[in-house]
Amino acid sequence: MRMRRKPWARPELAACPYYIQSGEQFKGKWHSVFGGNNPNPIHLELGCGKGGFAAELALRNPDINIIAIDIKSEMLALARRTIEERFRESSGEEDVTVKNIRLLTQEIALISNTFGADDKIERIYINFCNPWYKERHKKHRLTHPRKLLQYKEFLEAGGEIRFKTDDTDLFEDSVKYFEQSSYKITYITRDLHNSNYTQNIITEHESMFINQSKPINFLIASP
Length: 223
What we know:
Elements: H1 9-14, E1 19-20, H2 30-33, E2 42-46, H3 52-60, E3 65-70, H4 73-91, E4 101-105, E5 121-127, H5 145-152, E6 155-165, H6 168-180, E7 184-189, H7 204-211, E8 217-222
Parallel strand pairs: 1-4, 2-3, 2-5, 3-4, 5-6
Antiparallel strand pairs: 6-8, 7-8
Helix pairs in contact: 3-4
């Protein structure tokens, strides 16, 4: 997603108490980032966009720690604003403390530098990622086998990836990617909103596709 530079983005992130610019220093120690020996499971959202999904996930699940990842400062700054707005709406108070979210600048191709086996990540969410249509660019897909093998390094036993997209070609390719990377697909639907899945959180992109009556593809896979 292309986004114009926003001069306010970096200063706002620098002042944000739950923003982390470089996560490599916390590899193997991510549970401590959420305070002391916080035992709550950690979930990652890869490509958090404007933060609506992470905010709703955190509000619904205060006993889960969430790391919302994006490569763009401008996007993370928008996510911060969205998260705090949703927390204010939920609490009815102007001053809010966001305890179970961390915003992280991270290039997904280098994610193994930031998370390791000791971090025991319980779940990864990949929502409406870039489909990278050209053949030579498909290696950049967040569901490409090169990435899926990296995720295996820090997903805990019994952990899972939840992948959602409107793009049929990307989804069908990704089903093959998961199988090639020895993941077990435990749930799959090609029409999420008419399925029996009840835990869905609607993202900003998803709302647009709902208005277009476009079916959403979704799967859950475990290593």
